[in-house]
UniProtKB/TrEMBL annotation:
Protein name per UniProt: CaiB/BaiF CoA transferase family protein
Lineage: Bacteria, Pseudomonadati, Pseudomonadota, Betaproteobacteria, Burkholderiales
Origin: domain of life: Bacteria
InterPro entries noted in UniProt: CoA-transferase_III_domain, CoA-Trfase_fam_III
GO molecular function: transferase activity
Keyword entries, A-Z: Transferase
Pfam families membership: CoA_transf_3 (PF02515)
Organism annotation: Candidimonas humi
């Protein structure tokens, strides 16, 4: 590498926001990997520690070319390295604590009692790494009676009120058909970790972060649906009628569906103009924001019955001309071919070493002066075990004790 190339490389490295930050990822399935992949995408060195059987999501996420690299796993574990440690072994637990002493961040989603038994509690690790940022992703906060219960996305959706909102809309409880709680709480964990990193820069102190799923999702839901019970005494019941009304959905047109929102007076009056009913702007039910809110059911009923006489494309042209917010309805099959999605290059075909060509989901956000790391494919189970242990100072005999344990007599 010549001097010019070296200077360019050094400048590129400086522009990667989390370059030099070391993360030990002791998480599996979705919530933890969401958080650690975000850190990895922006330059952190993320070491994913797995038990010999591997992250459950390698197979729980459906079929794959190799049989151990499901689609969901591929979308949550890029830019990481994989180390296998059997934590039932003393040598493996010792090696893990050796790694913990040298990293900046440890992210865990094991239950507190299991962490304490394995010697991986914050207190145990802080003793060997006082500057450590330790993020524990929990199902339930430690102070509550549910603290040691297992938690999965569907359990949290039901317990936090999400299924109740679905009940309000459709007449029976149901889950949002994606792991919404896991993804949301994973990104909240990233916020907390980055805040702790900034705090450490100012104070030199490490931090113990606890991010409980139930409390975070309960706060998320009730910010929308505490509604009139916010006031004491209450001015009414729960559920924001605008977002829980059964007609809050894509609106049928002459040949499909359209997504429409007309909230301000200007937008609503333009909508009335578009459907040939300009007199409705003087209707006492619809003449103001407050009036339309009081008459949400009537307003939504009007919208749902007004668009059947034209095609989606015709309505989109009209609404665009009149500045009424509207977009086409995309199915999952059509979404990758949406012209805007293609323009920004959200989906990219890449080559995976075991799965062959795959579609990677790119990063939606941009930095003017920074840059994410280049794509590195999600690793096969344990692909980096020896290299990582050696880099972190374990000698060959210690590595052999972990990777080639002697069979019991």
């Amino acid at each position: 590498m010549n001097d010019t190339q070296q200077q360019k490389t050094q400048q590129h490295d400086k522009n990667i926001p989390l370059k030099g930050i070391k993360v030990l990822d002791l998480t599996s399935v979705v919530v933890g990997p969401v958080a650690t992949q975000f850190l990895a995408d922006y330059g952190a060195e993320v070491i994913k520690v797995e038990m010999p059987g591997g992250d459950l999501l390698r197979k729980l996420g459906g079929a794959s070319v190799s049989g151990s690299m499901s689609a969901k796993f591929l979308h949550l574990n890029r830019n990481k390295r994989s180390v296998v440690l059997d934590l039932k072994m003393d040598a493996a637990r010792k090696a893990l604590r050796h790694l913990c002493a040298q990293v900046d961040i440890v992210v865990v989603n094991m239950r507190p009692r299991a962490l304490e038994r394995a010697g991986l509690s914050y207190d145990a690790l802080q003793a060997v790494n006082p500057c450590l940022i330790y993020c524990s992703l929990l199902g339930f906060g430690r102070k509550g009676r549910y603290a040691n219960r297992p938690a999965y996305d569907s359990i949290i959706q039901g317990a936090s009120g999400i299924a109740s909102v679905v009940d309000k809309m459709h007449g029976q409880p149901g889950y949002v058909p994606m792991v919404m709680a896991d993804h949301t709480v994973g990104l909240i964990a990233v916020q907390m970790i980055l805040m702790a990193l900034y705090q450490r820069e100012r104070t030199g102190m490490g931090e113990c972060i606890e991010v409980p799923m139930l409390e975070n999702m309960a706060a998320y839901v009730m910010a929308e649906h505490m509604y009139l019970r916010t006031f004491d005494p209450p001015l009414g019941g729960n559920f924001d009628p605008r977002v829980s009304d059964p007609q809050t959905r894509p609106i049928k047109t002459g040949d499909g569906y359209i997504c429409l929102s007309a909230n301000t007076d200007q937008q609503a009056f333009a909508f009335f103009e578009a459907i040939g009913r300009p007199e409705l702007k003087d209707d006492p039910r619809f003449c103001s924001v407050a009036a339309r809110f009081r008459n949400t059911r009537d307003y939504f009923d009007l919208r749902s019955k007004s668009l059947l006489q034209k095609t989606t494309a015709q309505w989109l042209e009209i609404f665009d001309r009149l500045n009424v917010p509207a977009m086409p309805y995309n199915t999952l099959e059509h979404l990758p071919d949406d012209p805007h999605i293609r323009d920004v290059g959200l989906f990219q075909k890449v080559l995976h070493p075991t799965e062959g060509p795959i579609w990677n989901i790119g990063l939606p956000n941009t930095l003017r002066n920074g840059a994410p790391v280049d794509y590195s494919p999600p690793p096969p189970l344990g692909a980096d075990t020896v290299a990582v242990l050696r880099e972190y100072g374990l000698d060959d005999s210690a590595i052999a004790a972990i990777t080639q344990p002697t069979a019991a007599p």
